[in-house]
Automatic annotation (TrEMBL):
<feature type="region of interest" description="Disordered">
    <location>
        <begin position="1"/>
        <end position="28"/>
    </location>
</feature>
<keyword id="KW-0812">Transmembrane</keyword>
<dbReference type="Pfam" id="PF07811">
    <property type="entry name" value="TadE"/>
</dbReference>
<feature type="compositionally biased region" description="Basic residues">
    <location>
        <begin position="10"/>
        <end position="28"/>
    </location>
</feature>
<feature type="transmembrane region" description="Helical">
    <location>
        <begin position="62"/>
        <end position="89"/>
    </location>
</feature>
<protein>
    <recommendedName>
        <fullName>TadE-like domain-containing protein</fullName>
    </recommendedName>
</protein>
<dbReference type="InterPro" id="IPR012495">
    <property type="entry name" value="TadE-like_dom"/>
</dbReference>
<feature type="domain" description="TadE-like">
    <location>
        <begin position="60"/>
        <end position="102"/>
    </location>
</feature>
<keyword id="KW-1133">Transmembrane helix</keyword>
<keyword id="KW-0472">Membrane</keyword>
């Protein structure tokens, strides 16, 4: 064997030998029967033609799909509005009870604490939260070392509850309470 670079014969130990590779056992390729392929293709096309309508037949399919899905979507949106409004009202009642309990701490005796909490709820319900004071019930327990204020709101005539005719509604009466411990000297 002649070296390409020098033009001399290469020593016998440097002669290039082809690598011996392991032979893998292979299967002969499967023969494709064109008749079978044609039959399979024919059946697939037949299924495709019956399962999928042609482009002309698709007119109005969006309207049909919306007629099926639209009412569910509208009910979901109404449910989100109803429950979102109810949670907003419940948060307002809880905040009202908490602030009334804090306001009642300033009283000297239980009677004055009760009067302070009820006056706070009546004023703030109308001014801050827009609640009707006639629909609110306030219960103040000012005995012992803690003041407990319970506020209940009747939402039966609230506009948000008008959606309750179509959707399972939350309770019409929202009751929340707050407790504040009396500090000592």
């Amino acid at each position: 064997m002649v070296c390409v670079q020098t033009g001399r014969h290469a020593p016998p130990h440097r002669r290039l030998r082809p690598r011996r590779t392991r032979r893998r056992a292979t299967r002969p390729p499967r023969r494709i029967n064109l008749f079978e392929m044609d039959q399979v293709h024919f059946h697939l096309m037949k299924i495709k033609r019956t399962a999928w309508p042609t482009r002309r037949d698709r007119a109005g399919s969006v309207a049909v799909e919306f007629a099926l899905v639209g009412p569910l979507l509208i009910l979901m949106l109404m449910g989100m509005a109803l429950y979102g409004g109810w949670f907003w009202l419940a948060q307002g009642v809880q905040s009202l009870a908490t602030e009334a309990a804090r306001a009642a701490v300033a009283g000297i005796d239980p009677i004055e604490r009760r009067a302070l909490a009820e006056a706070f709820v009546t004023q703030e319900a109308r001014d801050t939260y827009g609640f009707d004071a006639d629909r609110l019930e306030v219960e103040v327990n000012a005995g012992g070392d803690a003041i407990r204020v319970e506020v209940a709101l009747d939402t039966a005539d609230h506009p948000i509850m008008a959606l309750a005719a179509l959707i399972p509604a939350p309770p019409e009466r929202i009751e929340r309470s707050a407790v504040v411990r009396m500090g000592g000297f």
